[in-house]
Amino acid sequence: MSMDIDQANQTAVNRMMEARPILKAVATARDVIPGMKDNLFLHAGPPIEWARMSGPLRGAIIGAMLFEGIAKSEAEATPMVERGEVEFDSCHHHGTVGPMAGVTSASMKVYVVENAEHGNKSFSNLNEGYGKVLRYGAFSDDVLKKLHWMNNVLGTALADALAQSNGIDLRALIAEALHMGDEGHNRNKAGSLIYLKLISPLIAKVVKDNAAESEVLQFIGDNALSVLNPVMAACKAMTDAAHGVEGSTIVTTMARNGTDFGIRVSGLGEKQWFTAPAEIPVGLFFSGFSQDDANPDIGDSAITETAGIGGFAMATAPAIVTFVGGTPKDAVNATLEMYEITFAESKYFTMPVLDFRGTPTGIDLRKVVELGIAPRINTGIAHKNAGVGQVGAGLVRPPLKIFEDALLAFAEKYNI
Predict the structure, then answer these.
(1) DSSP secondary structure string, 73-93?
(2) Per CATH, the architecture of 242-413 is what?
């Protein structure tokens, strides 16, 4: 049987690597996300109900309800949720990804990424930057004001700009950023500047108001995470292309909702998740915060590692250690360790420091369980209370148990 599994894994990994994600458009979520409706709120990670949600996720849901005008205050929003007037689902069930809480609601503008090779689409919301933001559970007036500006001014500018173009090749952008010191998850300084370079002439063409144009370009340029959301959608398009290959043990989703860490596997079901309690990341904390303030791991951004960048490409981004801890040598060793649990090396994402070796690509369930090595993930750290925001950044690994459970389910399904 192992020969067949290897063949299935080859198919899955090839589909992942050959996917060509193109940023095609910015549009309103309800118009483009499959199954989106007005009272549905998508969130990061595996499915979860309100009672088990962590502080940052609850805060982001409340903020999104205020943004949508469904509720006028937290006091009004919470009972509505408890009465079942709003619905929740995992972003991943709708081709969508979002960083941290990942909350996406019907009238939010989203990036639309199309995989030119296989035709599947993926979506992600717009990045708010650092500080007090919805994705960390903040919902004060200034947070909502910024979200409305992003939707109405930034979102409209991006939508009109992309409509003037053939789209932006995100696979090429990621490949270039990896040669400029990014790893594509926590360090996106180069990628965001490449994005600004590509989008700014298009924005200049469509935004007629000089003050608005300046504001939009400054917002994109000032935010070192601007490109994270399109990159996450690109990785989602890649990993979705690899999902659903019969007999494949390749992991196609790693995602966290602030309570549970969940994975999905190519050869197992579309909505079959394997979950365990999320770990608390270990890392460097901003001034005035400590490990005691940290929320368990949260966000869909581990889709980057699932696609072979992020923590898997740390070797190419030595400066990442100033943000997540450790030394440049640790960054190289992190990448070398990930070759042990992956099926292939990327054809398109290469690392100069390792003689342009391809990044470790395609997490193989069998290897994770056999070697007892869990994938490495670079991540932001959220405060456990809603609305405080990011308190640091660091490293985390998923619990090994979810890989063991998935392998048992795989053995059962395929009678091995």
Answers:
(1) SHHHHHHHHHTT-SEEEEGGG
(2) Alpha-Beta Complex (3.90)
Q: What is the DSSP letter of 259?
A: S
For the CA atoms of 223, 382, 324, 132, the dihedral, rounded to the nearest 10 degrees, stands at 30
Cα torsion for 333, 228, 341, 393, to the nearest 10°?
50
Residue 200, both tokens: 């700014």
pLDDT in tens, 106-138: 999 999 999 999 999 999 999 999 888 999 999
Region 88-94: what's the mean pLDDT? 98
Largest CA distance in the chain: 65
* pLDDT, tens digit (0-9, with 9 covering 90-100), for 326-379: 899 999 999 999 999 999 999 999 999 999 999 999 999 999 999 999 999 999
Query: For residues 48 and 153, what is the distance between their CA atoms, to the nearest angstrom?
Result: 33
Return the H-helix or E-strand segment holding 193.
Answer: helix 189-206
Our measurement of the distance from residue 403's CA atom to the centroid of its chain's CA atoms, rounded to an integer in Å, reads: 20
For 204-217, the DSSP string reads HHH---HHHHHHHH
Q: Is the pLDDT of residue 2 over 70?
A: no
Residue reference for tokens 């001014």: 153
380, β-bridge pairs: 393
| Cβ neighbour number for residue 401 with a 10 Å cutoff | 14
Range list for CATH 3.90.1710.10 in the chain: 19-231
Q: What is the amino acid identity at position 273?
A: W
Q: Which residues of 322-355 are buried (b: 16+ CB within 10 A; e: fewer)?
A: ebbbbebebbbebbebbbebbbbbbebbbbeebe
Rounded to 10 degrees, what is the CA torsion of 231, 298, 259, 412? Answer: 30
CATH superfamily assigned to domain 19-231: Enterococcus faecalis V583 domain (3.90.1710.10)
CATH 3.90.1700.10 location in the chain: 242-413
Cα–Cα distance for residue pair 411/106, rounded to 1 Å: 39
Reported confidence tier of residue 325, pLDDT bands at 50, 70, 90: confident
